[in-house]
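Researcher: We're teaching a course module on how sequence relates to structure. For the next exercise, students receive a sequence and then see the predicted structure as tokens, so they can try to spot secondary structure elements on their own. Here is the exercise chain.
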Amino acid sequence: MGDNRIRLRELLLLLLGGVLFVIAAMYRLTELPPAWWDEGWTMSVARNWVVEGHYGHMLLGQPVSPALAGHFPVVVMLAGSFALFGVGFLQARATFVFCTLLALLLLYLFTRELYGRRTAVLSVLLLCLLPVQWDLTPALMGRQVLGEVPSVLLLTLGFLLLLRSGGNRPAYLVWAAVAFGVAIATKAQVVPFVVAGSLLTAVAYFRLDRRVALAHVLVLAGAFVLQAGIAMARSALMDTPNASQDTVTGLTQVTAMVTDSAIRSSTIRFALLSGLPVTIGLLWTLIRQWRVMKQGAPSRWRASVELLALLIAAGWFAWYVLLSIGWGRYAFPGVFLAAPFTAYLILSLTGSVVNTASRTRVGQFKRVGAAVLLLLFAVLLGRQLVLGVREIPSMIADTPLEAVADSIEANVPEGCTIETYESELLFLLDRPCHFPPPQLNVDLIRKGWLDSAWKMPYDLRSVKTDYLLVGLFGGGLYEPLIREGVYVPAGRFGAYRLYRRSGQEKVNLSGEVGMLGHP
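Model: And here is the predicted structure for the students to work with:
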């Protein structure tokens, strides 16, 4: 294990990098990218917990379950921020910017102890400046209220604690189990990769060093004990007389086990084009790990931690390419955790290119091959950077979310109810709102991504509210009500359209952004 001390020059470099990251991540924080559906459910539950004392949503003023919100640790983190700094969209996203900054620092420290300072610096630079896909950069991904960043933060913390334990410092092993336990309670996708990675690492080292294998199994067992405790705490909070416990079925089949040929073709192209450095970095490290295990590693514990991190990163990335629905955010944890291996590969290739010691034909061939691969990586990463910069203007919201909410509040009469599927506004609207049941999410994914002919079971005749608010997610869902004249245009507020039920008086539209015609 290397020198763990951080020198003054390194500390100043970290501080400068942190300041630059925060400046970039805070730029138009509430507008880039626009607030969206997945963020809204989590913010709504956190807001209700702090303001109403109810861990869940409010349906027409009545408490219901927290379905579709982020997992318990994510809500706890967000609710803590709201309790300290007030409820607001800026506070919500700023919390995740801080979380991302901490995740990058932990990744730096873990990579530094595993491979050295140069690899640690390069791994963070690759993530921040040369993205495999623009929306996967920490400065953009890390500002959104999603579970991906907290999960990689906790996983990286677990790796660092395992590495520092040396396999024989029980306190570090206990804290590593805590980190992994909270991680698997933070994001559902974490569970299979931590389980498979830990067990495969234990099997791989069972004959080499049974103490190493046992330590990994015990850490995994401790993680699940803690996860069970977190689940019990969440259940206790939800145990209120008026809170219905809505369940969602089929979500795994439409997001995590997808065999659609068009989606698979898209994700495989991603792995072979934009994500090629990540793909090769993971494969190269797997081969190197196999050789290390066959030859006998100088430090079996260090090699076992490297193998665990590698298996989790490779497993996540492979799942994204081969089985996931292909949403970019699902690739982020795999790309993030693979950064140390990609950086180590690039530095190894660079060393092969500049190495003049070998004059053999094989040595020259290796130098040429390394140079060609480095050039290919540079072209691919440069291409992504150029494309990403071009996309930024189109990703900025035309009207800030809180301004939209204020305009709607000012133009809907007091006491009127609103039907909407735009969850990001449920978090800000201070009036009774109704929204479809959580199960509809599965049907919308199936119809929008897998089967356009799929008929959604939501009974639109049940929509009885005074107003209808439609944005990106509710447009197709509520179109029949608008087409049949049940609801008529009442105004447009940024990217959102407001409709009033037929027969009601028109509201004052002084605060609207623009009039709306029939879609």
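Model: If you want an answer key for the exercise: Residues 361-391 form the longest helix (31 residues). The chain is about 60% helix and 5% strand.
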